[in-house]
Structures are given as structure tokens and as C-alpha cells.
Amino acid sequence: NAERQGDSIEGVGRGRVESAANAERQGDWAGSRPSPSSRQDRLSTQVNLMMSDALTCFARDSLHAYVAFLEGHAGRPGVPVLDPAYLRSTPLLSVELLVEEGEVGYSVPPEKMVHACLRQLDLGLEALAPLTELNLFGSLLSSQLRPLSSAGVASEVQTIDLRQRLETALRAATAPLSEYLESLRPHEEVLRREDSACVAAFASADDGEEQSFDLPGIEAKVRELRTAQAALDDALPDRVLIGTFLVDVVALKGALHAKHEAGIDLLVQLVAARGSELSASVSAGFGEIHRRLTEKPENIEALTALEEFRAEVPRRTNALAAELEEMSSCYDALEGFQVEIAEQDYTARWGACRWPQRLVELEEAVAQRAEDDRRAYEAELSGQQEEFQQELEDMCNRVAGFDQYTDLSRVRHVAGVVRDVETALADFEKRTSLFNQREVLFGKEATDYERLSSVVKEFEPYANLWQTADTWRRSQKDWLDGSLLALDPDDVSRVFEQMQRAMAKAVKTFQGVPGCLAVAKNLKEELASFSSSVQVVTALRNPGMRDRHWAALGEALGTQIQPDEAFTLRDATERMKLHEPQIMAEVQKVCDRALKEFAIEKALDDMVEAWAPIEFDVVAYRTTGTSVVKVSDECNTLLDDHIVLTQQFSFSPHKGPFETRITDWETKLRLVQEVLSEWLACQRNWMYLQPIFDSEDIQRQLPAEAKRFSAVDKLWRKTIKAVTAAPHVLTFCDDDALLTAWSSANEELERVQKNLADYLETKRAAFARFYFLSNDELISILSQTKDPNAVQPHLRKCFEAIHSITMTGEQCEMSDMISAEKEVMPFDTPLQPKGSVELWMGEIETTMRRSVRKETETGIADYKVQARGDFMKSHASMVAISVSQLDWTSCVELAISDGGCDGVRQYLETMVAQLKELSLLVRTKLSKLQSKVMSAIIVMELHARDVVERLIEAGVSRTGDFEWVSQLRYYWEERESRFGPINMLVRMVQCTYPYGYEYLGASSRLVVTPLTDRCYMTLMGALHIKLGGAPAGPAGTGKTESVKDLAKALAKQCVVFNCSDGLDYKAMGKFFKGLSTAGAWACFDEFNRIDIEVLSVIAQQMLNIQSAIIQEKEIFEFEGSQIRLDPTTATFITMNPGYAGRTELPDNLKALFRPMAMMVPDYALIAEIRLFSFGFDFPKPCAQKLVSTFRLSSEQLSSQDHYDFGMRAVNTVINTAGLLKSRDPTQDEDLTMLRAIRDSNLPKFLSDDILLFRAIIKDIFPGVAEPSAEYADLEAQIKAVAEGSFKLQLAPDFLVKCIQLYEMTVVRHGMMLVGPTGGGKSRVLRVLQAAMSRVENDPNFDKVRVMAMNPKSITMNQLYGAFDLQTGEWTDGIAAVLIRHMSQPDTEETGVTLEELKWMVFDGPVDAIWIENMNT
Description:
The chain is of the alpha/beta class.
């Protein structure tokens, strides 16, 4: 190359030489480098420059050539050429497709190929770097040689661009490789598949049940796999040319073929195994038949069994024939698969096929042999019967001659003969039974062996006589000459009485047989003379005889009696004459005393023994590091019974020998009883106080009580440690020191509890709303004063609507109050929770009211400038309602003042337009909170419209007219309060009431009907004259709701309290303290359920409060305490006089309340307004149809206890309609209403009433087809759960009931499943629970937890809770505990989350006793 380019190189060289000469002249060339000879230096420089220039040119050319070469290959089309027969262009690189762990990949990744090509370029450039200048005159020049300038080629811009260009081309060339690889990804599913997956569907069975063999399925699967194998050859060639890459696909094809082949092999093995199994089963079945048919019957029974088996053979062979057919199918399939069958399987197959023909041949021979055997056995039976008749005749003669045995001296011999005859007769009876059985088998009539029965009956008296005689002779000798101490008096008496009864019967039986009669009489006389000896045995061998009794007996008889092993009954009778009447009387006297003393001794021993296994059950108590004891009911019952029994013994005249023992035992039991009583009392108090004084805050606030409790706690832990080591109740509790310790501990704990109660009272006095919390809840707050967040769960009980408070930072700065509906209202000034909790809780109350007032004032200003819809959406619900009511009041009064009735009529048009605007707004996309707010506002606006219409009807012309004055009106006037100079006032007739500024959240509002208006007027009138209100009426008329809604209208806290007969005056007094101090309202629901004795005291308490209000006292005395009074407090009671168990109110209580009769509300009006608030365009016709449906249903359907067509049922339908409207706002409103009525009522109707109900809604909604709800996921899960987990058959009605129950849970808070036992109530509930828990990816479903209990299995106090009359404390019942656990779950401990659905199930019969308290 240098020669061919010589001229250019020379030119370049000269240029470089001249440059070098210039550089030398300027002193820049070599710096301080030595230059011994200028000519040598110039020559050397020229040579090195030429060499460097040549290398640079070579390098650049090589780079261009290398890049051009690779670009030429990389630029080839990237479309795969499948299995090219010839290569039109030589591929640059060859790569293989490999399979690793089920994934397809290249043997060399494309990225690695790119790097390899680039690496070659880099290596070439790197080779230039170490080249240095040539040293022509080694010794004359320095050894320090500089690198050639050609080494800088790598860093030239041109080189970098070339490299970049090459990398881009290579990456573009490898892209089709990646695309081709992605196209092969579907094959990975086959590669990853387990070989056994092919047979999994054919070789497994669920739940241990046998699965039928699916041969057609297997054949189809084999064909599918073979088709897939064949398709591989078309889809995947051996080689693929992609651009300049040759891809080898052989390894991938081989792996896929192997996968398919493995699946085919397994399926073939499955078929072969099934065929082999069937051939073995068929051969075994036919072989068993063959064996049974060829057995030789030994008797007629075996022959009959053989004939019965022959009758079964066709059924068995049919079953085997089916298996044989299936076996043939399996082997035919294997032949179709072209699989070689093993020799033994081949042999087994054709061996099995020959069995049917072999059986046909055998059957003929067996039938003939059976006929011959039957004739032979029948002849044999006849011979046996004839022989038996002769033997029976001989036996009759033998029994008939038994009256000849009359010699008692030969009793043993005769008894032996009797036993022989009895054995023979028993054998005869067995043989006759066998004969009769065989006659039945031969089809003959059974022979009557009456003669044998008469012989047995005839022989029975002789047998009894001589067997009794033999027993008497043996027993008499044993009793008289055996050791008296060895005799069992009970056994002797029993045997003797049996013999006497037998002889008395024998004397009657043998009246006509002189010889035997004499024997019987003789034996009877012997027994009678021996009876006194039996009395001696009974007396002397009673278990109570002790040495003292033998001594007393000897003293009474004047002789010494000390029985030993040699002392016999003969000695007692013949030598000592104890059986004689006079002596026997003395003996009996001593023995009776011994027996009674023994009864006491045995009872004492039994009591001691009964206490041996009684131990304390020591159970670890929470995380205290100690335990508590459980005393079983058995222990308490035993203790009481034994104390009573021991007292009875202490009065017994026979207690003498045990008097000391009885006294000691009674003392011990009483001590144990007292210790247990004190211990368990201490345990109750300790368990109550332990978590309280476990808090460092409580210890710091009550140091003296904490010290006292600590001393008791040490005693407790020490005692528990001891009782764990020795838990025996009787031993451990028999300790006077322990009794003293527990008594002292109880005194200390009582003092601690009293001081604790006083301490809590001071906290309640500081913040009155603490009166509405139980002691436990208040202590829970006080024990965590360092953590203000601990108060959050209790806020809802202290405030009407504050669900939580926003707290930020380490100081827990409070900035917002949040309602249960997630509405947020900011505090006017942030609050720092400092000092005692009761102080900053009071600050929260003040700040709440101040903030509500400020928001109201801001709302009044905003209402004038903002668009009405924007105002409603941007302000808190209570502010929006109160400001709109304020505006309505001012507008109506302005309209009346300016234009009289005509002015009101004009304002009505404005109101209708405003309502239309709200109606359109409610149908837009609103949040859940905004929907609730708008619903409440629309309800109030509709009432305001109705009032204006009534004003027009009444022709109101002045603001003082009663029709206007009798409405609830809002004013913003100057009236000084602690919240500001201008405040909101509410007026109605003559009553002016200050607005309470209690935060109400976004709660719903009651539809105000004319009945509600009258109720409000009555209650406001009562407030004006400082009385309470007493709405009364049937259920569902709105008594409680009206009181609650009036409280909302006046922004007052209203505490609803459901009364029960368990309330006492102390609990009510504590409640009244809180009401009076906090200025809250109370609504006592079902007030007349309280006992009359308690009501009298409550009347005095209420009179005390009302008197203080009338006298305008700021502090008054109540129940012995001086308490603050808020004059806005009020008390209301509601009553339902129609229920059983209601008390008539005392007159002094009636005088404190203004009565109000609540009758049936206007359903149509309520429904219309509620439906309008939900966004219905035509609420009035829908409401009328709803009311008509309920009216007709109540008139035409059957009368059932669980049918309800009252206000609560109407409310359910309205809520359902609102829910359906929000889901589908465009649906026809008649259709929505129809579905709401149907879904809410159909589940409760009986089958006959369903037909009538459907006819009613068809008439009321003509032309509207009943819609059907779709719950595909839920229905699928119900089917899976019912048939899987519960093993139920899913009847259509069962599925319908499950869906209906689900729909009820959506709209009802509580429901009742009614039906007969076994009707499926519990199963429907449990299946729905499991199904809802399993539905996934649906926000309407979540895991369902069920808390179940039987309300009839426990008392009312255990179910709902009760007041402790001694302490005035409330104790929660099981229902309360479970409800609290459901609403405030401890997720860490139980795993139950707040989001999960929770069902409380009272599984038991419903009665008035427990269902009455359900409201509470």
C-alpha cells in the first residue's frame, strides 16, 4: 500500500519535514532534547513522521472498511426467511435458539453480539496506543521515545462518529432477532408445562370422590398433542435467516417435540394402566363368581346361599360386562395410538374376554348339581326328624317319671340328673329350631313341636325343686361352718330369699304330687327355722360394727364376744344362742346403733374424698405477668351441700364418736367458704382496678390510692404464685391468716374505689359531658392524658356530631372537627391541648360553638354574594341550612310587609325556581357528602315551600298572624352571649330560644309534616314555660325522631337514652347532673318502662332541676352536690302506652311534662319530600303509588306477625329507591319505584301472599315490567359455597333467599329471618356470609364477620348489661361487648378491620322479654 501511495506519502513526508524544520528554527520541536547530530535528528524525525502518517492512513482506511463491511451485512432486510434452501447471501453470524428453565433464548444474546463487533474495532484502535517512534541511531539518541502521533486516531471525532454509526447499524440489525424471539414466546407455555399437567384433568378426583375415566377425552388430548407436534414442523423450520444472522431452531423444536411426546406418553400410560386395572378387576370378579359356583355346599343352608348367589350372578356379570367393554375400548385406543402392548397385558386382556363363555358353560353344570343336592338334603332332613321324634318320646317318658324322686338324702344325685335333662331339652329346642328353618328353605310348612314345649313346662317345677334343694344343702353347710367374717350379709339374704320364694311356689305346684310335695314342705320348714340365723348374719356382719360395738354387745349379753376367722355362725347360734328372740333384740339394738354411726362416718369420709380432686383453675390474666383463679360451680355447690350436711350431723344423737371430727370439719368448710368469698370479691375489684393503676398518669394523679393498690397487688401476686404451686382448694384455703389478708385487702380496695369515684366526679364536674361516659371510658381517657389522640374514640359520646379532630405535630395542635360523614369544619383558632384533659375538653366545646357561630356569620355574608348552588356546596351542612332558613324567614316577612298575601304569592314563585335549581343540582355529579347535604337542604326547603303555600291559603297579611308566628323562624339579632354580640335566635309562637351552636355534621333532617309542626309547637311551648315534653303514641309515629330533629333545628346536643326496668334513681341522678351542667337535651325513650318506685324519685330529681331553671339559679344543690346549671337544658320523654309491661306515670311526674299525642304520620307527604331530595322528577305520583301499595297490601294480604306496613317499612322503600336512583339516574322512575317496593317487601311475604302482592303492584304500575337484578359474581360464589363447603343442593328458592337477604343488608340496619325449624334460616345466612367474603374486585363486597349468640340461653342482664345496685356502676352485657368489638375492632389482636362487614346474629326464638330491650 505504501508503494502504491508513495507519492502522497512522500508529499506528506516533505510537508512534515518542512514543518519540523520550521519548528526547530523556532525552538519548539524538541525542547531540551539532546541533539548530537542535526542530520541524524532530521532523518530520524522524517522517518518517524512518515511512519506515523502511514499508520494513521492505514488505521482510518481499516476503520472505514470494517464499518462498511458490517454495515453492508447489517443493512440486509430483517424479515425472517424460514429454512432457506440456499443462502442467497452468506450470513455474518450464526446463533442457536436454546431453552433454559422453560424460557427461549439465544445462545449468544444480541446485545453481546453488538459488543463483540464493537470490541474488535476498539482492539484495533488500542493496538496503536503502545507504538512509539523508531530509534534509528540507538546510542546517539535518548532511550525516552515518544508515542507515535497515530495513536491519537481513537480520539478523533471522525473515529467516534464511525463507532457510533456502527453501533446504531448493529443494534438495528439485531432488532429483528428480538422481535423473532418475542414471536416464539407463546411456545414457552408448553415448555413450562409440567409433563403431568396433560393427565391432571384425567387422573385426579376432587374431595376424595372417584372420578369416571374419560377415555374419549384422553383420545382427543392425544390427537391434539400429535396435531401440535405436526404443526411444529410447519411453524418452526430447522434454520431461519434474519438479515445477516442464521438462527438454528433445532434445539427449540426438539424441546417442544419432547414436551408433547412426554404428554402423549403419560396419557398412553394412563390408558394402559386403566386397561390393565380393568382386565385384573374383570378377571378377579369373574374368578370370584367361578369360585363361589364351584364350591360344594355342605348343607341345605349353604345350598340356599348358593342359589341366592346364582340369582345375583346376572347382575354381577352385567356390571363386569360394562368393565369388560371399557377394557376393550382402552386396548382399542392403544392400538389406535400405535402403541405396543406388553405381553402380560395382552394375555390378561384375552383371558378376561373368555370369562363370559366359561361362566355360561359352568352355569348348566351347577344348576344340575344343585337340583341333585336339594333332593339329597331333603331326604336327610326327613330322616333326622323321624329320629328326633323317637328321642322326644323317650324324654317325655323320662320327665313323667320324675315324681318318683322323693328321697332328700339323694339330693346331689337327683340334681345331677336334673342338669342332664335340662341340657338335653336345650339341645332339643335348638334342633327343632333348625328343623323349622330348613323346612322353610325347602318350601314346606313348619312342623309344630308343641309336645317339646309341654315337656319343658312340665319339667320346670322338678328342676326348680331339686336345684333349690341342692343349693340349700350346699349353702347351709357353708354358712354354718364357714368363717362368719367371710360371709357377705347382702349375698346371704339374697340367696336365702330366692330359696324361700322357690319353695313357696313348689308347695303350691306339687299339691297333686304327694312325694314331691313332702320334699317341698320339708325344705320350706328347714328354711323357715334358719331365718333367725340369717338375721344374726345380717346384724353381726353390718359394715358399721367396730370394737366398741362388740364390747357393748358382750356387756349386754354378759359374755365376751370377739369374732375372729374361726368364729362361725354355728358358734353364734348353737353355742351362744344369739338367734333366740330375747337375745336377738339386744343384738339388734347394738347393731342398729353401729349402722347409724357408720352412715355418719361414711358420709364424712365421702366428703373428704369428694374434695380430693377439687383444685383452683389458675388462668393467666392478660399481660399482667400474674393470673386469676376460677372456682368451678361444682366447687361452690359442693361447699354449700357439705356445710348443710355437716350441720345435720351435728344435731344427730349418734354423733358421739365423731363429735370432734364433725366440729373440725364444719369449721374448716366455713373457713374455706369465707376465704373464697373474700378472695373472689378481691379478685373482682383487683381485675377492675389493675388496668387503671397500671397507667402512670393515674398513679401520678392518685398517689395515695396507687400506693394502697400496690400493696394489695403484691399480696395478690404472692398468693397467686403460692396457689399455682399448690392449687388444692381445701388445703390452701384452710388458713385464718389468708382470710385476714383478703379481708384487709378488700377494705383497702373499697377505699381505693371510693376515692377513685370521688376523683372521677371532680373530673365530671369540670367537664359535664364526661357524665355521659361510663367510668371505664372516662378512666381510659384519664389514663392517657399524655396522648390527646386517646380521646378520639370517645368524642362521639361527648359531642353531637364530632367524630374526630384533626391533630398535628408533637403538640397535637387541634385545627378541625370532622363529622362521621367526613365533613370538616375548621376551628376559628387552633387549640393546644395543655393541662388536664377535662380543661382542654371544655376548651374544645367552647371553640366548637365559637367556630360554628363564626362559620354561620361568614355564611350569612357569603349567601348574599355567592350563587345559591355554590353556597350550598361550599359551606357546612348546618350552616347552609340555618342560613337558608334565616334568609327564608327574612324574605317571607319582607314579602308580607311589602305586599301582604300577594307579596307571599310572588315569593312562592321565587322559591319554586330555587327548588328547581336545587333539584337539577342534586342530579349532577356530587360527592357522597355533598349528596347528603343537598338531601337535607331540599327536605327543609320543601317544608318551607309548603309553609308558604299554607300562608297563601290562610291569606296571611301581617307578620303577627298566627299562621306565620306558629312556624319555626330564624333571626340574626343583637343579643349578647359569650360567643359574640350578635347571635342567632329561633322563635315559635311566644317562645324565643337561643341557637345552641352545637356542631351537627352532615346529618339528615326529618321531613316536617303538619303533625311534626304541631309537635314542635307543643315542645317549644313547653320550653317557654320551663317544662319538659312528652310525645306519646304507637311505634313508628316519629316521637323520638321529632325530639331529635327539633334539637338539630336549635343546634342542641340531644342524648337519646333507651329506658329499661333495670334503671335506678342513682344512675338517673348521675345522668341529670351531666344534662344540667352541660345544658344538653335528653330524650328518654320508652320512659314508662322504668319501675314505678324509681319514677317517683326521678320526679323529685326533675322537679329540683326545673325549679332551679325557673328561679334562674347559676348553681343549685342536687343529690347532695352543688352543681352549675345551664338553663337551656331540657328533658323529654317518649312513651308507647300500647305495649305490655308499661307503667302508669305518677301524677307528680306528669305535671312536669307537656303531653303531645303522636298519631299516624302522612306517609305520602314524607315519601314525596324524601324522593324529591333524592332527585326524583315526579316524586308525588311515585309517593302515591308507594302508599297505595302498602294500603292495599295491609288490607288484602294475610295477617302475619312479621308483616309491617308502617313508617319504618315506608322508610326502607324510600332509602332503597334513593340508592337505586343514585346508581342509575336515567332509569324510568316508575321502574325504580317498582323495584324498590318489590325488593324491600317480597322477602318477607309467604308464598301465597307473593301472588297477591305481584297482582297489586301490577295494577298500580300498569305496563311496567318487573326488573331483575344481576348479581353474577355473587350468585356464582353462592353456588360454589353451597355445593362445596356446605354440601347443599342449591334449590332455586334457596338462591333467591340468599339474594333477597343480601339486598336487605344493603338497605336495612337490622332484619329478622323468620321460618320453621329446618327451614334454612341459618344456612342462608352462613352461605351468604361465605359467598360475600369470596367475591373479589368488587367494592360492594367485603369480608363478612359473624358474631353469633343465643339470646334465650342467658339472662337479660347477661345479654344487655345491668346496673349494680350496690355501686351504681353499669356492667356491659355480651351483646354490648360484641357490638363494641364490631364497631371499634382491635385489629392487631383479632385481625378484624374496621372496613370489614360485621353481622351480629341473635340466633334463637324471639319473645317479648329480650326483643323489648333491643333498642337499648
